[in-house]
From TrEMBL:
<protein>
    <submittedName>
        <fullName>Enterochelin esterase</fullName>
    </submittedName>
</protein>
<dbReference type="InterPro" id="IPR000801">
    <property type="entry name" value="Esterase-like"/>
</dbReference>
<dbReference type="InterPro" id="IPR029058">
    <property type="entry name" value="AB_hydrolase_fold"/>
</dbReference>
<dbReference type="InterPro" id="IPR050583">
    <property type="entry name" value="Mycobacterial_A85_antigen"/>
</dbReference>
<dbReference type="Pfam" id="PF00756">
    <property type="entry name" value="Esterase"/>
</dbReference>
Length: 246
């Protein structure tokens, strides 16, 4: 039976206006930790596919358990929603909306959150997280804005050729700390618009490129398919890798 302490949580919704996004705005979900106090300051986790991270990934429940039971420092979570029709265009390195999405995230979303919530503003206190193409765009945000983001969680990242080319263009990635997991049963996954891909091979290739550039990498291959049933179970360990115990 679920402990009621895990269900008593605060999740707010916000709308960020945007000059860069075609629709002119983007919806957010904001998780405030147990004992939230606006006079304090908090690390912050930015999740791509915000709706899925909260509904399928149960990230708010995992965060609450980690804070209450494991003694992790309280942290805020910002889930950034996406219109699935435009997801690939925004998240993929060769997507038609990719550049605009990166600029929205760094130049509009970040200031919006930091003006309204007591989140810390050092790169080591900001964490980017995503699954599949969400993991990919999280890495691209860090590569494009290393002065803002240095920490990434990538679950089964969709590191297609265009993404690997972006990694390869970067000379020195010693500043990057990335947590990567991928499922052993992801060798023949059919994407909605890019055919069948071997995500295990894509992640092994990306890992080799990142290692060559000097990035700090936690990498693990585990039993799992390209779906939330796998990723949901991995979220707590990924968060605990970056968020310190009080």
């Amino acid at each position: 039976m679920t402990d009621d302490r895990y269900l008593k949580r605060t999740i707010l919704k916000e709308t960020v206006p945007s000059r860069y996004l075609a629709e002119g705005e983007r919806q957010l979900r904001i998780f405030l930790p147990p004992g939230y106090n606006e006079l304090l300051s908090y690390p912050v986790v930015y999740c791509q596919d915000g709706e899925d991270f909260f509904n399928f990934g149960r990230v708010a429940t995992s965060a609450t358990k980690l804070i209450l039971d494991e003694g992790l420092e309280p942290f805020i979570i910002v889930g950034v929603d996406v219109d699935k029709k435009h997801r690939t265009d925004e998240y993929a390195a060769d997507g038609s909306r990719h550049g605009a999405y990166l600029r929205f995230f760094a130049e509009e979303l970040l200031p919006f959150v930091e003006e309204r919530y007591p989140v810390r503003k050092e790169p080591e206190d900001r964490l980017l997280a995503g699954d599949s193409l969400g993991g990919t765009v999280s890495l691209h945000l860090a590569l494009e804005y290393p002065q803002l983001f240095t920490r990434v969680i990538s679950m089964s990242g969709a590191f297609f050729a265009s993404s690997q080319a972006v990694i390869d263009r970067n000379y020195d990635l010693e500043w990057l700390d990335i947590y990567m997991i991928v499922g052993l049963q992801e060798t023949e996954y059919e994407t909605t618009d890019r055919g069948v891909h071997d995500f295990l091979a894509l992640n092994r290739n990306a890992k080799a490129l990142l290692e060559h550039k000097g990035a700090r990498i936690y990498y693990e291959e585990k039993d799992g398919k390209h779906q939330w049933g796998f990723w949901q179970k991995e979220i707590p360990a990924a968060l605990a890798y970056f968020i310190e115990v009080e």
